[in-house]
Amino acid sequence: MPDWRLTRLRGEFCLTWDERDGTRRRYRLGTADPQEAARRAPSLFAELTRPKGTTVADLWAGYLVDMEGRAVTGTMAHTWKALKDRFGAMEAEAISIADCRAHVAERRAQVSKRQPEGISDGTIHTELGHLRMVLLWAAKHGLIAKAPAIERPAKPEPKSDFLTRSEVVALRDAAKAPHVRLAIILMIATGARNEAALQLTWDRVDFDRRMIMLRNPFDRGRRKGRATVPINDTLMAALSEAKAGALTPFVVEWAGKPVKSIKRGLKAAGKAIGRPDVSPHMLRHSAAVWLAEDGHSMDEIAQYLGHDDVKTTTRIYARFSPTHLRKLADSLNVI
Q1: Is the N or the C terminus of the chain less surrounded, counting Cβ atoms within 10 Å?
Q2: Which residues form a coiled coil (predicted)?
């Protein structure tokens, strides 16, 4: 939820805050007494930011205000584009299973050059999952009596594609821009998510202790998979070289500015080595596969990746471990 503050206008206190789009909101509190203003402000803010209606669009907007700063709200800007035409004007409690199935059928039929087979079930699962999340939030806050059931496709199994060590070396060498090469080394060595790597600042790189804090301690948003991890020798050399020429507080930079995306440079390097399917997430996935292949425990890998639940790590990566289920198989020897 946006942070409100008390300001003054002609001697009178006002409740003031900034919307996500930068719009400034200011409302008189009807008092010049600071204690009375502080007492009135919270309830007025809650009333002014409360959704005015019970359509999905109203509740969606209310959820974004309440959850401002959390990572999921950024993704929801994209999922809303897919949902708003069908669900936006609907009364939330009127949504039916038939509406969900119609959305699934429509999205699966939407073909394009990038997705010739239609929108994937994984994408649709996320879209309807965000809708369900908003409705449950609305019910919890008493904005609707009950959240309707939301049916969605089964979540696809995680992709198993990963890069071998030799492929990562080739990918690094094929990257033309130095910031892309540094990002590749950083994400492989730390298992960092793309966003965490690109948002990493030098104040969270401890050269003396050889540790990196991927989570920004001043960021109140809930971020997935951001651990504190050691710096290995390969990364140490790359970071030391980058630090010597740094022009910004950001570790990954280009032309004196922070980098928002390395997808284009990474794709170009991937095509050069015969892996056009490469993506930033594949680097994180590859790092985890290597850790599992080297026999490290799922608990340790979960900590390294910043997983909250080791079950997630086990479900995806246990099959790559040479020791997984080995004792059980040995128990079934008959000769």
Answers
A1: C
A2: none
